[in-house]
Specification:
Elements (H helix, E strand, L loop, with lengths): L13 E2 L17 H7 L15 E3 L4 E2 L4 E6 L5 E6 L8 E6 L5 E6 L5 E4 L5 E8 L7 E9 L7 E7 L15 H5 L1 E7 L5 E6 L14 E5 L5 E4 L16 E6 L16 E5 L10 E9 L3 E6 L24 E6 L7 E5 L4 E5 L23 E2 L16 E7 L2 E6 L4 E7 L5
Antiparallel strand pairs: 1-7, 2-26, 3-26, 4-5, 5-6, 6-7, 8-9, 9-10, 10-11, 12-13, 13-14, 14-15, 16-17, 17-18, 18-19, 20-21, 21-22, 22-23, 24-25, 25-26
């Protein structure tokens, strides 16, 4: 297996320093006047359900972040935000790192950074780009692997660089513009620190020796490429499509737990390619073990159970989404699935069975899932209220809070179910 072990990251990552930002606690409460005002507004939409259950803002939001692309709260409790300061210049992308008080503690400049995740060793991965020539003209997709970010002393471990990190490309040469067009679009880890890297690109011949560009590369904890989602369709819409992946999520996630973390290899995909007429753009992918073929990745047909006695809407409704940017799964007992859609300017919430909504309160007479999806850019498309979202991108969940990159409003918003507020 071939692996690029690049050791020039310190020329790419620039530790700028420690910057403090005065702020309040990360958690809101019913005693907070601002939250009280929001709670008095009632449901986001009175037609959603005969209930007052809804997600409400937690202040402070993290404001003044330029075009946030992704957010992740790590096993180290730090809040990681990838920002795109200048959409015409990949050299200005940054990783901003905040503590639980919303204070900016340090920042890293990472070329073309778009996505962030962390494994249980507190190793951090950032998807970005790397220059392949001295003139810094040609760049290709890369994943930067670091540790010790929580200590404020980032240490570079490795760089997974397209195309060399793909075992199937060992005997192929650089494909010029086609390889430059490849992007790493999502990162997620498993309980054993296996890394999933979603990829998109123009070459998707399923009969060639090299794997299709559209799919998910799988790496072990040491960074070796140990697999690929061969069974997913890189060209067509289906319940196991890998066309235009924009986000990936596993069932394992922070906070760190001594027991109870999911050991499943299953994962979820968001598909955003606007050039393909995709019927399903948020998918549940099931991993099964075959004694001869190893791990096989297939569709989750259980999500086609449209039981209207339990829910009014479903994740697998045809053309449910327009342009989902990211997907995340709550690693706690709720198992809720969160999807951002930049065309609908909204966040959608589903149960682990694909029903839209959350469980009704224990004392409620209402038995269906209560729809709590929210968003909207306002009548003029420029709304900046607590429930407005403009071009939402990354999303994550941590200790019952959801964090949303509100790209169009240059902020990261936080919400919690009002039934969870103490």
């Amino acid at each position: 297996m071939h692996q690029v072990k690049s050791k020039f990251l310190f020329g790419i990552l620039l530790l700028i320093g420690i910057v403090g930002i005065q702020s309040c606690s990360i958690f809101g409460s019913k005693k907070n006047n601002t939250v009280d005002d929001v709670l008095q507004q009632g449901s986001i939409d009175p037609n959603l359900a005969p209930s007052n259950v809804s997600y409400v803002p937690l202040y402070p939001f993290i404001n003044n972040v330029n075009k946030p692309l992704d957010v992740f709260v790590g096993y180290d409790d730090l809040i990681y935000i990838v920002v795109d300061n200048d959409e015409n210049n990949i050299n200005d992308n940054e990783l901003l790192i905040y503590n639980q008080k919303s204070e900016l503690v340090y920042r890293l400049n990472i070329i073309g950074a778009t996505d962030i995740t962390q494994d249980r060793r507190l190793h951090t991965y950032v998807a970005g780009r790397v220059y392949t020539d001295a003139t810094k003209v040609i760049n290709v997709a890369a994943v930067y692997h670091m540790e010790l970010l929580a200590a404020g002393t980032p240490k570079f471990i490795d760089t997974l660089t397209h195309y060399a990190c793909d075992e199937s490309r060992n005997n192929t040469s650089f494909r010029g513009a086609d390889d430059i067009a490849v992007q790493f679009t999502g990162l997620a880890t498993l309980w054993d620190n296996t890394l999933y890297v979603s990829r998109t690109g123009p070459r998707n011949d399923q009969l060639g020796f090299a794997r299709p560009d559209n799919g998910v590369l799988i790496f072990d904890a040491s960074g070796l490429n140990i697999g690929f989602t061969t069974n997913l369709n890189p060209n067509q819409s289906s319940l196991k499509s890998s066309v235009g992946i924009s986000g990936i999520a596993t069932l394992a996630g922070p906070p760190q737990r001594l027991s109870g973390i999911s050991t499943s290899k299953n994962f979820f995909l968001a598909l955003s390619d606007p050039n393909v007429n995709l019927e399903y753009r948020a998918l549940s992918v099931v991993a099964t073990e075959d004694p001869d073929q190893g791990t096989i990745y297939g569709e989750n047909s259980a999500f086609l159970n449209f039981d209207v006695t339990k829910a009014d809407r479903f994740m697998y409704e045809s053309f449910r989404f327009k342009k989902p940017e990211d997907i995340y799964v709550a690693p706690d007992a709720s198992g809720y699935i969160f999807v951002t859609d930049s065309e609908k300017d909204s966040v959608f919430i589903f149960t682990n069975g694909g029903f839209e909504g959350v469980n009704p309160p224990a004392n409620s007479n209402y038995k269906k899932q209560i729809i709590v999806s929210f968003g909207g850019s306002g009548s003029d498309g420029k709304g900046s209220g607590p429930f407005n979202l403009i071009d939402p991108t990354g999303i994550c969940y941590y200790n019952r809070n959801i964090f949303v990159c509100d790209k169009g409003n240059n902020r990261v918003c936080r919400y919690r179910l009002n039934t969870d507020l103490q």
